[in-house]
Amino acid sequence: MAQTISIGSTQLIGLLKAKMGRELKIFKDDGFKIDLEESPAGQFTFLAFRVSESGASESTLEEAQSIFKNYLADSISDIILNHWEDILLKDIIKENYYYFGEDEKDLIYHYALQHINRDGQNPSDTLYWLRRKSRILQKLLDFLRNNNRIVIEGFIRFRLKEYIGELKEAADRAVDDFLIEREYGEFIQLLKYFVDIQESKMDSVHVLIKGDGVFKLYDDSMQPVRNDYLEGYIIDLADNEINYEDLLISALITIAPNEITLHYKNKNRLCVPLDMIKNVFTGRVKECKGCKLCASTH
Fold first, then answer.
1. Average pLDDT score over residue span 260-273
2. 184 pLDDT above the threshold of 90
3. Which of 100, 112, 122, 123 could form a disulfide with 170 if both were Cys (CB 3.0 to 4.6 A apart)?
4. Gap between the Cα atoms of 298 and 287, Å rounded
């Protein structure tokens, strides 16, 4: 007996219709007929699919309808992950973090994409995406096995609570990232202010950074910076090495040089926050391409 399988949604229904086009052709090529009727119902639009074949046995027709539901579930799961997810994530941010500005919400959204592996930077993104799709696909197959009518919004809301929970968690973590980034930006601006109001004590400083974060400061003559430039720092930079990252920033701010040259051997092994130095001393920092000083790091 032929069955009518109906799918309703307030949006993206045209995308589902286009995506199912290929599957409809496959069934037609196999000798089955699929009638498609599109009808509005208030704010919803419904697509009604009816699989039939006059010469097919009951078991063959039931098998074809089951296969069609598998195709349908696969298409819906793709649309949920590739299109609905953006809508859901933005709605979550809008509803729970309404007090942020639009630009801030946009940043939070992009941070959230990173937490659900949608930024495209991680080679494991595809595998993670496939695992998420597999869970949604299974929920759809379980539902369609006993139902011939599905409203996508209702299905997401009531059947994908775990998935929605993941999106909410991603949004929460994204807000934490945003606040940390904002605080960091404010801190950098404060340090830049200190540098701007500070009188430069040296025109140029060379910073030798070793892999464990230990550093030394040198002047233009490649002599260790004298302690008196640092206004009584308790550590004698001429004879001692320092492995405190914040102390390096503090020392550079105290000297406020017009030019800073960074020397290191392996950037990947550095513990010192080079980005912070570059951000605080905008336009004053350059990196040595390689010299005897760089080679002395280990």
1. 77
2. yes
3. 112
4. 17
